[in-house]
Design a protein that fits this description.
Strand content: 15-25%
Strand order of the largest sheet: 4-5-3-2-1-9
Helix content: 40-55%
Length: about 450
């Protein structure tokens, strides 16, 4: 955190004796330590700047992440306005009049509003905007843009031309909107000005050489400082609730988020604690919406997206593996049923003296029989489904779950090629009747005989 300026010590001492009058508008907290009139004039200038700068960014009611506290004190000989400094949970500065809100302060305010309201843009855009608005002139509701700064950089001149020159005036907002959406320079310039960046730079050379820099009036915010800014007693320091920074330091992330809904840090930290990938991603996106320029949040978003992608790939891999294991289980279960059917078919037969058995197998003894034309063989994950058309009857579908367990007679395994059989062959099949509604079959094939 940046230390507050030394001049604020004076204000703190004065506040201890006289808390003054407080004016609130937008993010500004203006304390009148030297009468209400100069404080109202200071607040009017600050609000007109916020309105003009925010309107160009597409945010007329531009927000600040932290309150901006301004002490308006009596003028002191040789005293200068204190630059904006960050003091734990607010921005703070000391001025004596609206005139003391100088170019340096306006540039700092512009940067505060850029950080809270604008997506990243090229650095030359930021520099040009801040230099251009640092000389904004305010007189009541009359706002004028374009007064040259002491140092006229090319970035300032480019932004001045785009904002003030008749060829471009009114179109700059379109360029900034395109850039904030992440569009490239070429299409952004053509969309806004119907010119390429190179054409604009060529015109800028002549603009700088001519050295004629005019100004244009802007639509001011309709304010009457004497009526629109309500005066209220300043609260004593000990009556203020814990700040968001205090709550964050104490570990109360949810409380910190409630205390300052504009602050993305507690929301970001809450997101990192999420175990659900989708909730973590949503939380990081919410933090980026509040502070679109924070590089930590953008890097975390890229990491979260990559982690989600890997998690989805791993889930798909597990799904396929589970499907493969389930298929194997079903296949093993089918073989078990076939063996049980064989055992049931052989029940009651006399026991064979194995010492006298010749090494020859006569196959299982199924009870089902069908004979007809083999029309088609469907190959289903290592299994075969045979479609047989008996003479004058509807086709019958039979399943071979394990071809190695089926006896083929009159031909080899090559005769059971997948697909339509061209031409169909006459076939006789012995099978174990056992319907499978899912596969649409009526039995398990035991013996296939090609005629």
């Amino acid at each position: 955190m940046v230390r507050v300026a030394a001049a604020l010590v004076y204000v703190s001492l004065a506040l201890a004796q006289d808390r003054g009058t407080l004016f609130l508008s937008g993010p500004f907290e203006v304390y009148a330590m030297a009468g209400e009139r100069p404080a109202r004039e200071v607040l009017n200038k600050l609000e007109q700047f916020r309105h003009a700068f925010g309107t160009l960014l597409g945010q007329p009611d531009a927000a600040s992440i932290w309150p901006i506290r301004v002490w308006v004190v009596r003028p002191q000989r040789d005293a200068k306005a204190a630059a904006l400094a960050f003091a734990r949970d607010h921005w703070e500065m000391t001025v004596s009049s609206a005139n003391s809100v100088d170019a340096g302060i306006l540039k700092q305010l512009g940067r505060i509003f850029l950080e809270a309201n604008a997506a990243p843009m090229p650095e030359w855009v930021d520099r040009g905007l801040l230099d251009l608005f640092s000389t904004l002139e305010v007189s009541g509701t009359r706002v004028t843009l374009g007064a040259p700064p002491p140092e006229r950089s090319r970035d300032w001149a480019r932004m001045h031309m785009l904002a003030v020159h008749p060829d471009y005036s009114g179109k700059l907002r379109v360029l900034l909107a395109n850039l904030q959406r992440g569009a490239d320079l070429e299409p952004s310039f053509r969309n806004a000005f119907e010119k390429s960046p190179a054409e604009v730079e060529k015109q800028l050379d002549g603009y700088l050489a001519a050295g004629v820099f005019g100004a244009i009036p802007l639509s001011g915010k309709p304010l009457q400082p004497d009526r629109d800014f309500e005066a209220r007693p300043a609260p004593p320091p000990d009556k203020r609730p814990p700040s968001a920074a205090d709550l964050l330091e104490a570990g109360d992330l949810a409380g910190a988020a409630r205390a300052n809904p504009r602050w993305a840090e507690p929301i970001y930290r809450l997101a990192l604690k999420e175990t659900d990938p989708e909730k973590r991603l949503a939380g990081i996106k919410k933090a980026i919406a509040l502070e679109p320029r924070n590089p930590r949040y953008r890097e975390a978003l890229a990491q979260a997206v990559e982690q989600n992608r890997l998690a989805l790939e791993e889930a798909e891999r597990r799904r396929k593996e589970e499907a493969r294991l389930e298929l194997e289980r079903l296949r093993d279960e089918a073989l078990r049923r076939i063996r049980e059917a064989e055992l049931r078919a052989n029940e009651g037969k006399p026991r064979v003296d194995e010492s006298k058995v010749v090494p020859w197998w006569d196959g299982p003894q199924p009870t089902g029989h069908v004979e007809g034309m083999l029309q088609r063989v469907d190959c289903i994950g290592g299994m075969l489904r045979l479609v047989v058309a008996p003479p004058g009857a509807k086709p019958v579908q039979l399943m071979i779950r394990n071809p190695s367990q089926v006896v083929l007679e009159g031909g080899g395994t090559s005769t059971l090629a997948c697909g339509p059989q061209k031409p169909p062959r006459r076939i006789a099949i012995q099978y174990f009747p056992q319907a499978d509604a899912k596969l649409g079959t009526t039995g398990e094939v035991a013996v296939v005989e090609f005629k």
